[in-house]
């Protein structure tokens, strides 16, 4: 399993996940940079993702939705703030409405993804910082750890296929 550690800290309002992949940094970056590949691993396995807009450039907005087994759609967005390919991606990560517009009633995180070479593979550290401990607790209560872990744990299998 790629996920090696998950921590959340209400005092610092952060959720951090660490994973290790048996693929080089450039290959992991390619997965995030290509929306058709990312669709295969973004979200829990039973909630396939569809990326509508996807451009990893500062100032761009990435939009997507995940579809539940019952056909219900759950949308999200990233407002890309910084890119240092292939090692770092920063974005505001939020929930969206059915029109893929930000949902102001839901938490937004400042997310930083870093990819570092280790032993021929990659260590990925995913850190999300929320505006308040309550916002972090809200996403924890929604199952964010379980969903994110199951999503990231799909990556090695996808890369082997």
TrEMBL record:
SUPFAM superfamilies: Bet v1-like. Gene3D superfamilies: 3.30.530.20. It comes from the Bacteria. Residues 22-160 form the Activator of Hsp90 ATPase homologue 1/2-like C-terminal domain. CDD domains: SRPBCC_CalC_Aha1-like. InterPro entries: ASHA1/2-like_C, START-like_dom_sf. Belongs to the AHA1 family. This is Activator of Hsp90 ATPase homologue 1/2-like C-terminal domain-containing protein. It comes from Rhodococcus rhodnii LMG 5362. The lineage of its organism: Bacteria, Bacillati, Actinomycetota, Actinomycetes, Mycobacteriales.
């Amino acid at each position: 399993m790629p996920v090696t550690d998950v921590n959340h800290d209400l005092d610092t309002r952060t959720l951090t996940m660490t994973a290790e992949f048996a693929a080089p940094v450039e290959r992991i970056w390619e997965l995030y940079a290509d929306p058709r590949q990312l669709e295969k691993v973004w979200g829990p396995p039973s909630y396939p993702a569809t990326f509508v807009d996807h451009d990893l450039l500062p100032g761009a907005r990435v939009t997507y939705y995940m579809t539940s087994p019952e056909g219900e759609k759950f949308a999200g967005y990233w407002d890309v703030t910084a890119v240092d390919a292939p090692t770092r991606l920063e974005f505001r990560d939020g929930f969206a409405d059915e029109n893929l517009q930000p949902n102001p009633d839901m938490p937004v995180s400042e997310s930083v993804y870093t990819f570092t070479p280790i032993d021929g593979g990659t260590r990925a550290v995913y850190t999300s910082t929320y505006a308040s401990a309550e916002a972090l607790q809200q996403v924890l209560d929604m199952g964010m750890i379980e969903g994110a872990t199951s999503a990231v744990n799909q990556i090695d299998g996808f890369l082997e296929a």
